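User: Sorry, what's this?
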Amino acid sequence: MQITRHPPHFRSFKLSLIALFALFLFVNFTSIGTRVFAPSAAATMRHKENFIPTDIPTSGDKNIDLMIFREGERQGVDPRLLHAIIFQESRYKTNAESYAGAQGLMQMMPATARRFAVENTLGTEANVAAGTKYLRWLLKRFDGNVELALAAYNAGEGSVDKYDGIPPYKETQNYVRKITAKYGKNYHPVLDPDDARLFFHLTEEIAQN
């Protein structure tokens, strides 16, 4: 019986084909896979970081909107209420300053800001942080009553205590009326930040449901 033997150059050709196929598999499932899937994951992460529910008002400046949203998240305060206050206080002007010395987006008095460990009330982030902390403190003090918290934000908590309600000042009464109409609620529960995210529908999953 005659045995057919393949010449050495044929075996080399087969080995070359196998090597090329292995290289093809390696390239497709490693480097190309990384290039295809990594940007998608990064884009998803950026989307989540920049997510703001569509029913939250806008200042017209994405950076300011994100700042307000994130500070509201951190403090457990509804960003919708923050927007209503900021619109009434400063019309989103970061350098706004009143004749009485209130400054920035949330028109913080320097003395009030210092109560919450904020020195630079002209710094936009610091201003929003101080105003949000103060608002949360007022909401807690007045058991979530939005009207009383707003009256105190405008006229001081001492005035609300003195009159056992909204003070009889035309400016304060108009202030409370306009903001509550814009916000649409008279009660704001004081929750820890995680519970507030769920209650106020601040997460992407809940906002889309």
User: Anything to note?
Assistant: The mean pLDDT is 85.
